[in-house]
Amino acid sequence: MSLRTQRGFCFVIKEVLPAKDQIWSIGIYAGKSPFDLESLAGVPNPILTCQHISDVPAKFVADPFMIQADGTWHMFFEVFNQQTNKGEIGLATSETGAAWVYHEIVLSESFHLSYPYVFEWNGDYYMTPETLLAEAVRLYKATDFPTRWTCLGSLISGSCADPSVFQYDGRWWMFTCSTPYQHDTLRLYLADEIMGEWSEHPASPIVKGNKRKARPGGRVLVLDNIIVRFAQDCVPAYGTQLRAFEVSELTANTYVEKENSKSPILSASGQGWNQTGMHHIDAHLLKDGRWLACVDGSTETSFTQKTDHHASAALIQA
Known about the structure:
disordered N terminus; five-stranded antiparallel β-sheet; Tachylectin-2, Chain A; globular; mainly beta; disordered C terminus
């Protein structure tokens, strides 16, 4: 989700939506691969909605990322605060990956935040949320994980949507969409160190003028020698479905990718909490070989989940 300003006023950008608003909520999926996922057995989706947010008046929740620390799953996600008219970063936790408890807003700025891409590096926890109204991609570090975060500085400048960083072959890499209101251009950057000098890849922009596969849609996966990036398909509207692309060659000078044969991997269901769209995934490989993923979905009106989320459910052991 994103915002922009004009003449000192703040406007919500509806991301080329249909006439009615899309209300986003968060679900949990599982499966044998990140390309073959479905709702976790015994767990009714969505597992988090705006109704679970207790400390601010929330319109929706979206863009979930999760990470396991000390045996507990920590999920960070956008909470759109109706009072401040901007996105903030919320926290929920789970011991099993099935039943989640909301805690609080853990990161808020004077500008809109979303897409809290959290990762661990050298024993510390970092986050590169979308901070496009700051005209930069900013790096945050947890000073007291998971609730206290401080900004270390900017990695690259510009209005960059959904920055997605990962390590591969001794370097840091970043995908980001440089047309946050058109969703049709994907750029690639690289650096030797996370806070080092970032430069644009010679093959960048990787995608230009194509809103079906440009805007990032979740955590980048590095599987053996294959890198998987997920992209939002914004046709006919923002966040309609999610596609997967396999990067088979990535060097400082070359880039080769192809779409996965099972793509799109997430799509609007036509009913319920994900009636009109799905545009995000963060998938994690568990010790038993299964994959656990947090996803989001949209509907045209607020969707109420009447089932007790703490009811019996299949346990996930990471």
